[in-house]
């Protein structure tokens, strides 16, 4: 689903009205007209106003506008439209307390390339600002509660970008648990499926004691976490798309 298929940002348009529009042939903004059956004149005017405002925002790739206007549980709809602007990222840390523990590695996957920053080497506030510069859409797993505040607290950076947290998108289609268990459930493979977040802490401690191979393994693990987010985003948004559009089938005109 692309944002052009969506009418749900409009005040007074919920899932039922949106489905009615789709069922009556209004599959995207270009299909809308005032005389559509089942939509009152006030709602029709609001839809037209929204479309007129949203078109230039879409042309400008203004993801922030759509993140503001779409309900939070519907922001997954931005992914298909803005996937080329997506910035997938994941961090590893020495613990769960962003006021006490340290970030050890940060991997960012953009435009098919993955960059990994390492504590004590190139992981700095300036480097983070560079890798996140002009990010159209952040994509994480549990990043809203963990990765984003951890980086903002640790490096005093501002990551106030539109954000798709796949943990919540996964839950909405019945995929619960952590990233690794969800990957197994949907068939996303790993080179080292035996490693976990606890191992990431252990590997960092080994590296601090002089084991350079441990850092190589940690970086590989962190990069795989990050790159797998792209595959998971494709999977879960496809399922959400099928659920939303599939509800049109068999409904009356």
UniProtKB/TrEMBL annotation:
UniProt keywords, alphabetically: Exonuclease, Hydrolase, Nuclease
Lineage of the organism: Archaea, Methanobacteriati, Methanobacteriota, Stenosarchaea group, Halobacteria
Nuclease among keywords: yes
Organism: Salinigranum rubrum
Gene Ontology MF terms: exonuclease activity; nucleic acid binding
InterPro entries assigned: RNaseH-like_sf (IPR012337), RNaseH_sf (IPR036397), YprB_RNase_H-like_dom (IPR038720)
Chain ranges of the YprB ribonuclease H-like domain: 87-236
UniProt entry tagged with the keyword Hydrolase: yes
Listed name of the protein: Exonuclease
